[in-house]
């Protein structure tokens, strides 16, 4: 495995963006940085030859940007349907279920939740992406999701301690 291939380098960029995102206590900053991280992930997974993960990450970027402007349940339904239908269509193995589940969880979190609940469901999505990244051979992505789980957990703890559950 080439630790410095173009695919892995873009994965390292996603790593930096993701850790920065999940350290945010303000929802709109979290969502904005996740959207940019997802753009890097889109390129990363395309270079790794994982079309389902690449599509899901790209859709997640658009979804996060959209969720900054609206909380429309219809738009959320569109993103859920697109993630499931196109994710299954692009799937090349059962491991595609990881990125599909991550995309669906992220959609529900982005459009319907705030505060600790938002971060809690994104924690589940993180675990799904971790499974995908291990299966894909993504070094930066595996490190990213591992660290995001810790950073997100710590941020949820700080929010809970401050009494900011919403």
Automatic annotation (TrEMBL):
InterPro entries for this protein: Uncharacterised_HI1736/YgjV, YgjV
Keywords, comma-separated and alphabetical: Membrane, Transmembrane, Transmembrane helix
Record flagged with keyword Nucleotide-binding: no
TM spans (from-to): 39-62, 74-90, 96-113, 143-160
Record bears the keyword Transmembrane: yes
Pfam families assigned to the protein according to its UniProt record, in alphabetical order: Imp-YgjV (PF10688)
Protein name per its UniProtKB record: YgjV family protein
Organism: Solidesulfovibrio aerotolerans
Taxonomic lineage from the root: Bacteria, Pseudomonadati, Thermodesulfobacteriota, Desulfovibrionia, Desulfovibrionales
């Amino acid at each position: 495995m080439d630790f410095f291939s173009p695919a892995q380098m873009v994965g390292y960029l996603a790593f930096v963006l993701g850790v920065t995102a999940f350290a945010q206590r303000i929802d709109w900053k979290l969502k904005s940085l996740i959207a940019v991280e997802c753009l890097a992930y889109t390129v990363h997974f395309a270079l790794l030859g994982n079309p389902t993960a690449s599509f899901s990450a790209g859709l997640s970027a658009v979804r996060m940007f959209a969720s900054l402007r609206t909380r429309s349940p219809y738009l959320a339904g569109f993103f859920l349907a697109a993630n499931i239908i196109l994710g299954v269509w692009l799937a090349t193995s059962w491991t595609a279920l990881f990125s599909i589940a991550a995309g669906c969880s992220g959609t529900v979190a982005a459009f319907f939740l705030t505060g600790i609940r938002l971060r809690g469901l994104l924690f589940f999505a993180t675990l799904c992406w971790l499974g995908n990244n291990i299966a894909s051979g993504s070094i930066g992505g595996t490190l990213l999701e591992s660290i995001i789980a810790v950073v997100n957990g710590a941020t949820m703890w700080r929010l809970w301690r401050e009494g900011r559950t919403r």
